[in-house]
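help with this record:
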Amino acid sequence: MRAGRLRFRIEVQEAVETRNTVGEVTQSWECIKKIWAAIDPIRGDEQFTMMQAKPTIDTKITVRSLAARGVTPKHRFVYGDRVFDIDATIDWQSRGIFSEIYCKEHA
């Protein structure tokens, strides 16, 4: 794969729990690093929840394996207004150069 395909600068975010002034636990997302990636949609789908259509898009995000080190399904990717929940990570061609990360994008 040519490095020129990795043209999107995405954020890797991690969930952080904090307490507000009332003492309630709230969850927010914090950027832990930014990496270069290729974003390729695989397929789209619609789910009906509470009588409303909720579209999801299965997406493959390709990054350098070194940049993906430590990224797990507990994290998520953000590119602009787009949010990607991580499903699985695969070492592309088992060579340790690129990783393919399969995600669901919520539209």
